[in-house]
Write a structure and sequence with these properties.
Blueprint: H1 2-19, H2 22-39, E1 42-46, E2 51-60, E3 65-73, E4 83-90, E5 100-104, E6 114-120, E7 128-132, E8 138-140, E9 142-148, H3 149-154, H4 158-173, H5 182-193, E10 196-199, E11 205-212, E12 215-221, E13 227-236, E14 241-247, E15 254-260, E16 267-269, E17 274-279, E18 282-287, E19 290-296
Antiparallel strand pairs: 1-2, 2-3, 3-4, 4-7, 5-6, 6-9, 7-8, 10-11, 10-19, 11-12, 12-13, 13-14, 14-15, 15-16, 16-17, 17-18, 18-19
Length: about 300
């Protein structure tokens, strides 16, 4: 009974995840950020450096930018600080595959004994702006959050819960939506897919390369790395369609026009294939009634499994 109930809940979650509008997703993002504002605002003491640290998290719903501030003082509540660090980022620039929790066994500046949460950007891009003591801003590709041992002792799974909330915010922020303009949708399609690799749960791989400004080449390999399909997506500006050419073994070549649909937040539909996106990291292909899920390959990243 329990497994059946879990399956039902999972299906309902999937339906709701696919059908939510951009405005509804923004509400989820804001609520998740508000939760993080409460849980990531705290004080702690580095006994080795004899410094008090204040951690603050803020989210601006207008710009969708989050700010983490770390301020150290000699005494708790002191006006003059010794160190003031500020990091500004957007959840959509972070990579859910890179979220990692490690044991911190020593005290070093703002990182103290307890747990350290490490979160990286997508493809390690320098998308995090950081400023220390008012100096010239620099860019970083990782966030480090210190969860002092006292919080782990007093509240079970404190670090794990924070990591899960970050994952939730990132997945919502990385969703893609129709823009209402064919040109903009086509550009978004190329940007999301170009020059990357995706994996299915049964170990098939899908490599995508941009071979011309308006053409993507897709190569699908089976678990033994044998090529089983080669396909092309070509933007047809005149017809406002995306041409799908599919070459698969001894089967007849499929050459059909796809259009951007409205059933999902971002999708392509045609007589032979239906492609829709859950977010920038997950794509579903439906052909002849069979559905295949491909998730962006980040196996090289050090982090939690995606969609555990």
């Amino acid at each position: 009974m329990r497994s059946g109930l879990f399956f039902l809940c999972y299906c309902l979650f999937q339906i709701s995840l696919f059908s939510q509008s951009k405005d509804e997703d923004l509400v989820v993002l804001q609520q998740t950020a508000e939760w993080l504002e409460q849980k990531l605002t705290y004080h702690y003491y580095n006994i080795d450096d004899e410094e008090w640290w204040t951690n603050r998290f803020n989210f601006d719903p207008q710009t969708l930018k989050a700010t983490i501030r770390n301020i150290s003082t000699e005494n708790l509540g002191a006006i003059q600080d010794r160190t003031h660090m500020q990091r500004v980022f957007q959840f959509g620039d972070l990579n859910p595959y890179t979220i990692n929790i490690e044991e911190a066994k020593t005290n070093s500046g703002r990182l103290v004994k307890g747990k350290t949460i490490r979160i990286g950007t997508y493809q390690q891009a320098k998308d995090i702006s950081q400023i220390k003591n008012g100096a010239v801003p620099s860019e970083a590709s990782f966030l480090y959050l210190s969860i002092p041992k006292a919080y782990e002792d007093s509240t079970s799974n404190y670090a794990e819960t924070i990591a899960e909330k970050f994952e939730q915010a990132i997945l919502v922020a990385t969703k893609v939506y129709h823009t209402g303009s064919f040109e903009s949708d086509a550009t978004q399609l190329l940007t999301v897919l170009e020059d990357d690799r995706f994996l299915s749960p049964d170990k098939m791989s899908l490599s995508i390369n941009k071979i011309f400004d308006d053409v993507l080449e897709l190569e699908q390999h089976d678990p033994t790395d044998q090529l089983v399909r080669k396909a092309y997506l070509k933007i047809n500006q005149d017809q406002k369609t995306v041409q799908w050419v599919n070459i698969k073994g001894q089967e007849p070549v499929v050459d059909v026009a796809l259009s951007f649909g409205e059933e999902y937040a971002f999708e392509l539909k045609g007589s032979a294939i239906h492609i829709f996106f859950v977010n920038k990291h997950e794509i579903h292909f439906i052909e002849n009634g069979e559905e295949t899920v491909f998730i962006r390959d980040n196996s090289f990243e050090k982090g939690r499994p995606y969609y555990r």
